[in-house]
Design brief:
The protein has a 4-stranded antiparallel β-sheet. Helix 1 runs antiparallel to helix 2. The model has no long low-confidence stretch (mean pLDDT 94). The chain has one domain (4-85): Alpha-Beta Plaits (2-Layer Sandwich). It is of the alpha+beta class. It contains 3 helices and 4 strands. 21% of the residues are buried. The longest helix is centred in the middle third of the chain and has 17 residues, at 51-67.
Length: 98
């Protein structure tokens, strides 16, 4: 059962001011490779699953940014955690779907 939603906006620093989108794409690949359910939005990506697994993914995303040459990275993270009931993206958004 998914007990958490984690949203992340990753903002890589670049050496010479180049476009960050290819780096953000690489960070999203880390999520894709993890196999967790996720949804990409214009300003952040939300993942659904076990909190500890999702936090490991956030850690790996940051590590990959350094591995691909970023001198630093800023990550803004939001966490919704409920170990008893759990959380799903569908539950929290179903009333907004037409």
């Amino acid at each position: 059962m998914a007990n958490a939603l984690v949203s992340i906006q990753i903002i890589p620093k670049t050496r010479s001011g180049e476009d960050v989108i290819p780096y953000v794409d690489r960070a999203i690949e880390v999520i894709q490779q993890s196999g967790v359910k996720y949804m990409v939005s214009p300003l952040e990506t939300t993942m659904e699953g076990d909190l500890s697994e999702l936090l490991d993914i956030v850690k790996r995303m940051n590590e990959v940014m350094i591995e691909v040459g970023c001198p630093g990275v800023l990550s803004q993270v939001k966490i919704a955690y409920n170990p008893e009931k759990g959380y799903t993206m569908d539950q929290l958004t179903e009333k907004y779907r037409g």
